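Agenda item 2: S-adenosylmethionine complex prediction
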Amino acid sequence: MSAKSVSSSPPTAANGANPSLYTYLTMRLRYTPQVIWWRHPCVWGVPNGLLHTLLAAHAGEEHVEVGVGNGYFPARLPSWSPLRTLHLLDVNPACMSLTARRLRGRFNLVEHAQNAVNPWDSIAEASVDSVGCFMTLHAIKRASMAELAPLVAQAHRVLKTGGRFIGCTIVCHGAGVHVTGRARRLIEHYNASGVFFNATDSVEKLRALLAEPFGATRVEVRVFGCVAVWVVTK
Ligand SMILES: C[S@@+](CC[C@H](N)C(=O)[O-])C[C@H]1O[C@@H](n2cnc3c(N)ncnc32)[C@H](O)[C@@H]1O
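Presented output:
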């Protein structure tokens, strides 16, 4: 999303949705080239190949994707992926409908239109093999990283023993984090505009957040530029 598009965007609603930011046209036409192809590697410093590999390596037969965007990463899973049933969990209707339309022919889809920090009541306990949450935590409306604890608790609840919680998020602080001048300016602008909510996020806070339900020894976090990438096993 460009600085122009977000500066006129109304703030996120109480339910966490921001349909005027996440419009169908933006997600369909601009999100992939501008955000995924350009900003991921060139501004935030995370190679997309790594994210494709992460999802392919850990997505099991039944997978929950939190913050679906336009479905770019699941759409590019290799044909050998075991993923069959894909739960799409998102609060913005355009993201949900675009992703569902894109992936319908390939997976059995189950849609959960809701704020990811609210209980995932429509997904049973210990029922899924994997949960993914790519580039979404920094975009969830909240005052601090600690407010994401209910989301992480839900990921833990729905995973089977041995299941994986994987994902990545943009962090501003912490060991190994490198924020370029361009990235810092964009992060500041997005936090001021209500697009990002990660001004005080750090790798250490992310590690603690994940360790709370999963246990510290089960958490692996690596940093690429200003993106923290995690793999956690239940
Ligand atoms: C920056 S996009 C990331 C999309 C995708 N995961 C990717 O990596 O391409 C953030 C996604 O999170 C969703 N989102 C934002 N706040 C949310 C919330 N509170 N609950 C659920 N989804 C949310 C948006 O609708 C959008 O689909």
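Discussion summary: The radius of gyration is 16 Å.
Owner for follow-up: CH.
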